[in-house]
Design brief:
Blueprint lengths: L2 H26 L4 H31 L16 H15 L2
C-alpha cells in the first residue's frame, strides 16, 4: 500500500471515529433518537466505504498481484484456490 492510499484510509478512519464520538455526545446530550439513528447510519456508511476501499486495494495488490512482489509483506504464499477462499471468507465476514 502506498503512502497516498494509507493517508486516504487514515482520513476515512478519522472521519468515522469522529462520527462515532459524535454519537456518544448525542447520547450524553439526550438528543432525539431519530437523529442519533441517522448519525449511526452515517457512521456505518463511512465504515463500509473504508472497507470497500481497503478490499479493492487488497484485490489489486495481494490477489491480482500475488507473486509479483506487490502484495503486502504479511501476505503468505498461497495457491490460487487458497487466495479465492480467503477472498470468499473476507467478503462473507465483511457483508454480515
Amino acid at each position: 500500500m502506498d503512502d497516498k492510499m494509507r493517508r486516504g484510509l487514515k482520513t476515512r478512519v478519522n472521519r468515522a471515529a469522529g462520527q462515532i464520538a459524535g454519537i456518544g455526545r448525542m447520547i450524553d446530550e439526550d438528543k432525539y433518537c431519530v437523529d442519533i439513528l441517522h448519525q449511526i447510519s452515517a457512521a456505518r456508511s463511512a465504515l463500509d466505504s473504508l472497507g470497500v476501499k481497503l478490499l479493492s486495494a487488497h484485490l489489486e495488490s495481494c490477489v491480482l498481484g500475488h507473486g509479483t512482489g506487490t502484495e503486502h509483506e504479511a501476505a503468505k504464499p498461497m495457491a490460487r484456490e487458497e487466495l479465492l477462499d480467503e477472498v470468499r471468507i473476507v467478503l462473507t465476514n465483511f457483508l454480515k
